[in-house]
Amino acid sequence: MHLSELTHPNQLQDLSLSQLEQIGREIREKHLETVAASGGHLGPGLGVVELTVALYHTLDLDRDKVIWDVGHQAYPHKLLTGRYKDFHTLRQKDGIAGYLKRSESKFDHFGAGHASTSISAGLGMAMARDAKGDDFKVVSIIGDGALTGGMALEAINHAGHMPNTNLMVVLNDNEMSISPNVGAIPRYLNKLRLSPPMQFLTDNIEDQLKQLPFVGGSMSELNRFKEGVKRLAVSKVGAVFEELGFTYVGPVDGHNLEELVSTFKEAHEITGPVLVHVATTKGKGYAIAEKDQVGYHAQSPFDLASGKSKPSNKPKPPSYSKVFAETLTKLAEDNPKVMGITAAMATGTGLTTLQNRCPKQYVDVGIAEQHAVTLAAGMACEGMRPVAAIYSTFLQRAFDQIIHDVCIQKLPVVFAIDRAGIVGADGPTHQGAYDIAYLRHIPNLTVMAPKDEAELQRMVVTAIDHTQGPIALRYPRGSGYGVPLMEEGWEPLEIGKGELLRQGDDLLIAAYGSMVNPALQTAEILSEHGVEATVINARFVKPLDTNLILPLAQRIGKVVTMEEGCLQGGFGSAIAEAMVDADIQVPMLRLGIPDMLVDHAEVNESMIDLGLTPAQMAERVLRQFNLKPAVNDGLIFCQLALASPARLRYC
Length: 651
Description:
Blueprint: H1 17-38, E1 40-41, H2 43-46, H3 49-57, E2 65-68, H4 75-80, H5 118-131, E3 138-143, H6 150-159, E4 167-173, H7 184-194, H8 203-209, H9 219-234, H10 239-243, E5 247-253, H11 257-268, E6 273-279, H12 287-291, E7 298-299, H13 320-334, E8 338-342, H14 346-349, H15 352-357, E9 362-364, H16 369-381, E10 385-391, H17 392-395, H18 399-407, E11 414-418, H19 435-439, E12 446-448, H20 453-465, E13 471-474, E14 499-502, E15 507-511, H21 516-527, E16 533-537, E17 540-542, H22 546-556, E18 559-566, H23 571-581, E19 588-593, H24 603-609, H25 614-624, H26 633-641
Helix pairs in contact: 1-3, 3-11, 5-6, 13-20, 16-18, 21-25, 25-26
């Protein structure tokens, strides 16, 4: 049987070891071929091919449930569960999702984009199973990096106190999350990898032990001695998990199918919670990815033979992440109090720059956003200038700490919120759509966003200089606009002051962050049709520059807000609230992300679907305020916006 012929994972049950190995080779080939062509996560999935094939060979997946932690290691799972023929659409609009998605397959039992969730979800399913009197197996697969997340440890603690609840946890130990793992737990796991395998007692050994005078022949004495010997062995190989209530099995070679199949079959027979420790190599089977496990965690389209990314059609300006990191590093070089903090995302946030040039001012806490925020609060208490650089989607996980540990105490912590707004192919689990709404209502917190990469430089300086309380700056994924950058001498911004960019008497457009340049483009399109707009770069959503915005709103009488975030509670809501409080009653249109999840697609495709391109926004403004353009102007908007049939809805 070939992988292309496999339509149900239960077909693996009847395959021989050599056939399973062939399936594994074909999974790697398909995985590499697909990611090389269109981009995606590479190393994580390559490392769990044998683990996935062996585990699924031992299960009845019409009944049994496998819960994955962080869906980017589940590409082999997708290929084994009926998605082979569509796998070429991975992470593309209307195609296969890059993470687990319950609505995509009956075998995706729990959605997973963030880390450290699988044990909690698996335990919940196991407890529900027992309550209903059912008997299916539940297996939670977690990467070793995810064990640095407190939620995983909370779940292990709970599961260990339930000796009659059958739950298998498979620890995929490759010493990596995205970057090398940090902390005591990864160090401990590394010791386990290097320890000799546990030697289990056999009947023959029992016979020999019975001859020892200090043991004697009674079964109770023998069992006590056996338990003592086992505990002595486990003290070297998994004592922590045993003490927490799990039966520990391993470490097992994660690329030896025969050993994996045998181990999983044995583990299925153990009563209560069991942890199978599987040692794997990230990027296994592709030498280039094995050698550079950080660089090949995920890749844009690349050449398989050389491993080099396919060149872009034209050079791109530096990314916002790079501009942020370079600016922060230069400030840190002049100020030893500046501390950069990442939660296992050094490469993504650009903080590897700080790590290389100012290693003593760089901290990676692992996948532990809650800890990162409170750690920053502790640093701020002692006069440091901590900068927590965290993706918008991941900062959600530390919401309580932002309020309780930072804002209530008015501590000068800087939140550098990367990947704010639409993020593209990672889909709904990673969209940075909510940070404006979940931050702007918190007392004592200043919240700002730059219109371009040069203004980001000034906002980093502003944040470091701001010592009266916490401050957050959000910036999008991807490249900037190519505006000139300053090497040094950046001027901080005045807190709470916006910027007037364009004047017109027919319409007020107030834009925030990444939507400022699209707002200017929208104003130019409107101008071609006789509508002149004033455009404001708000810069701050808190405090809002009401002294600038409200008089213009009152005088012009028509207001449009633009933001790359959710409309409920967002930037537009802030202006609407300010207008209500000032008793300004004028027509208003809020443009942003409506009450919906934004699925995986290219960023420009998502913006089109949301109606947030300049041409589409101009069309919506004309319709909303009944500013009728000349005959056939609608055709002009179609020509500006149209590039696929999906865009016809706006024409």
